[in-house]
Amino acid sequence: MKEFDREALRWALTNAVEHGGHADAKSVVGKLIATQPELRSRIRQVMETVEKVVKEINKLSLEEQRAKLQELGVAEAPKREERRGLPELPDVDKYPKVVTRFAPNPNGPLHIGHVRAAFLSYEYARKYGGKFILRFEDTNPANAMLEMYDKIREDLRWLGIKWDEEYVQSDRLDKYYKHAEGLLKAGGAYVCTCDVMKFRRLRDGGKPCPCRGLPASEQLERWRAMLESKYQGEHGVVRVKTDLKHPNPAVRDWPALRVAAVSHPRVGDRYRVWPLYNFSVAVDDHEMGVTHVIRGKEHVVNELRQRFLFGHLDWRYPTAVQYGRLTIGGAVLSKTQTMKGIRSGEFSGYDDPRLGTIAALRRRGFLPETIRQVILDLGPTHVDSALSWETLAAYNRRVADARANRYFFAPGAVKLLVEGAPRLKELRLRLHPSHPGRGERVLPLLYEGDALAAYIPGADAASLREGQVFRLKDFMNVRLTSREPLKAEFHSREVMDVPKLQWVSAGAIEAEVIKPDASRELGLVEPAAAVLRVGEVVQFERFGFVMVDATEPKFVAIFGHR
Ligand code: GLU
User: Fold this and answer.
1) How far apart are CA 275 and CA 360, in angstroms?
2) What digits encode the pLDDT tens for the residues 431-484?
């Protein structure tokens, strides 16, 4: 073997083994160039070779890759050191106990972006032996959805996030009213009945509206009128006084409570006046003793607004930690788009594989540990991050590889007759190559006359040449004698360095795999898969990790990743 080919193979194998069985050509090229800078001059050729090598290597199982690496005499790189964990939070010593909260709006499903707030808040509370609160922010009666409270709880439980206390804002209106009234009395807020456009014009010019200067007695009277629904339509807004010259006009005299004559899915028509986000959050963060607010940086302006309220009431503003947005390669995260797609039937539900929801990730076989590790490794960085499915898959492989049992699956299966094959009733194979303790699966064999009747993947069948020797994995090597009809003859049993194909024989089950783009791939899976239960993650060898989605009336699995 030429020195360069050997090096390419070595780095490709190392990269594959480090990433749970899947090498990335770009990283391999990077390694090669870093160790041999002279390669830079023929980069194109390097890339071509590496791509070829990587393609071949990725067809092997992790065990085979490990074995090859050993053959090359390369010791496996030590497992990458666990990251040091989360960076310290600021101000921890200023508080007797760290209190964090996750505050989702129950108006849509949780997705990978939300989970960043959830995990960071939860893990920080744990790190410092503090308290973690779950708070549903549902003070917009027009968009709270009854089914979401439980869905969110369910997602959090699945992720392994446990909360010490739970609050629902729509149960707390009396508290918000009390503070609103106190604020009006003390002159920190006013009831504005101006036309919104007129108010904005004044605000943008840094001028007060006529309502702002009215005495407290008048404000309280207006407040009562709001509560008693005396205002027509949507009029009547409690505004918190701020600096009218604040450089950002959106911060000036922001709305805190307003009339919303809409029925709330939890508390019905009991209330007509509803607090807006900034007000209820501020009151709750204070009342619940939240010490560290860990939230997306899109809330930076909200923090400025909320600080004015804290100032009026002489409260101490919690320590705020802001992080960037997290998206995942091409997946739909927008609530509006998700909801619209579900309503129109474009998406099959909250767990449609094209969505970035937790439900979709779960359905695709991503494990909660994976999601946790990804989020913790990112930490509370301020920059926006776009997670790729490959990264998520690489993390998941590390956990799933050891856990998932193996099965043969022949996508687009076509029949192959093997003449002269050893005559056995069945083959017993390990459920997991490196965990013999898990037991075996039985692959029954079917013969037609003298020939073994096997089914192999359609794509493999199409690429076989007459005379080519290949292996029916874990059984025997055969030589192709005819392409049409597809026939082969027995060659030998011991492992050879030839392409290894998935195959099934007697009793194979028709299976359908749903791909991330929602397309479906049909094939045959070995009969042992009949005992699998919905929700189980297994590896269809050489095909990928899949999660069993249904067993009745048909075996359906969702493709996770390679
Ligand atoms: N309910 C808000 C959200 O989901 C919480 C933001 C915050 O942490 O204050 O965006």
Assistant:
1) 33
2) 999 999 999 999 999 999 989 999 999 999 999 999 999 999 999 999 999 999
Q: CA–CA separation, 524 vs 160, rounded Å?
A: 35
* Ligand 1 pocket residue status of 410, Cβ below 6 Å: no
Fold held by 171-302: Rossmann fold (3.40.50)
Q: Is 101 in the pocket of ligand 1 (CB under 6 A)?
A: no
Cis before 444? omega within 30: no
- Considering the segment(s) 91-132+148-161+303-403 as one domain, its CATH architecture is 3-Layer(aba) Sandwich (3.40)
Every domain of the chain and the residues it spans = 3-71, 91-132+148-161+303-403, 171-302, 406-561
- Kindly report the protein residue whose alpha carbon is nearest to atom 10 of ligand 1: 104
Query: Which architecture does CATH list for 406-561?
Result: Beta Barrel (2.40)
Q: State the chain's mean pLDDT as an integer.
A: 93
Q: pLDDT for 216-245, tens place per residue?
A: 999 999 999 999 987 766 678 999 999 999
* Shared fold status for 91-132+148-161+303-403 and 406-561: no
Q: What is the pLDDT of residue 6?
A: 84
Residue 295 CA, closest ligand 1 atom number: 8
Short-list 524, 416, 529, CA closest to 471:
416
Euclidean distance between CA atoms 63 and 67, whole angstroms: 6
pLDDT at 2 > cutoff 80: no
Tokens linked to 448? 């037609």
Q: Look up residue 432 and give its two tokens.
A: 């997991």
Q: What is the pLDDT of residue 38?
A: 83
Q: Is 104 in the pocket of ligand 1 (CB under 6 A)?
A: yes
Give the span between the Cα atoms of 500 and 51, in whole angstroms.
20
